[in-house]
Design goal:
This protein is an alpha+beta fold. The protein contains six helices and eight strands. Strands 1, 2, 3, 4, 5, 6, 7 and 8 form an eight-stranded antiparallel β-sheet that branches. Helix 1 packs across helix 2.
């Protein structure tokens, strides 16, 4: 946590390995419909760097149930994959910042379902890696977006932001579907989050 010019930045204790889903090359894995697998691998890489590879993403995508005709994967599959590797996760709807911020404070990465389309259904997964506040009020959410090539982003002079995109709290309602999947290393941390976020 760094306090810079009145803005306090909260971030995960370990940054994820950034994986770009549109990368093309011998060592990469191009999959424009694989944001769920990419985001899940990046989330797990916060806990174990071995997950931060294109080979792992390919394997994870292969394990996921796909959406018929449209492609991509069902949102609950992010949690299902985390469970297979021994982590704790659930998919929630109707989320608010009060759900997200405690997870970051507890060191848990959170997959967000964004870009609402028809009927408010989300079209893309991104990874929440931090947030900032000023005068005690949430200000920005920091995302690692698998569809953005750069692993980093610019910030105002004297500041350092995690991730590769910033979303203001004012823009959140138009960008986020309210769907989210926090991933926890252990049951004690998950229980603390549930208590703070008042989630059963």
């Amino acid at each position: 946590m760094t306090d810079l010019a009145g803005e306090t930045v909260h971030r995960l204790p370990h940054d994820p390995v950034h994986l770009y889903q549109l990368a093309q090359g011998q060592e990469s894995y191009y999959n424009p419909m694989g944001c769920g697998a990419f985001s899940t691998a990046m989330a797990l890489s916060v806990y174990d760097r071995a997950f931060g590879s294109y080979e792992q993403v390919r394997a994870i995508f292969g394990q996921m149930i796909k959406v018929p005709f449209f492609g991509g994967t069902f949102e609950h599959q992010n949690a299902a994959v985390a469970h297979r590797f021994g982590y704790l996760a659930d998919f929630y709807m109707q989320g608010t910042p009060a759900d997200l911020l405690p997870a970051i404070d507890l060191g848990a990465p959170v997959i967000l379902l964004v870009n609402p389309g028809v009927l408010g259904l989300g079209r893309h997964d991104v990874l929440l890696v931090g947030y900032s506040e000023a005068a005690g009020a949430p200000l920005h959410l920091f995302l690692d977006n698998t569809a953005v090539e750069s692993p980093t982003q610019s910030a105002p002079p004297g500041r350092a932001y995690p991730g590769n995109q910033t979303l203001t709290l004012a823009d959140l309602s138009g960008k986020w579907t309210g769907g989210f999947t926090p991933i926890f290393r252990d049951s004690a941390t998950q229980a603390r989050w549930r208590n703070q976020a008042q989630r059963g």
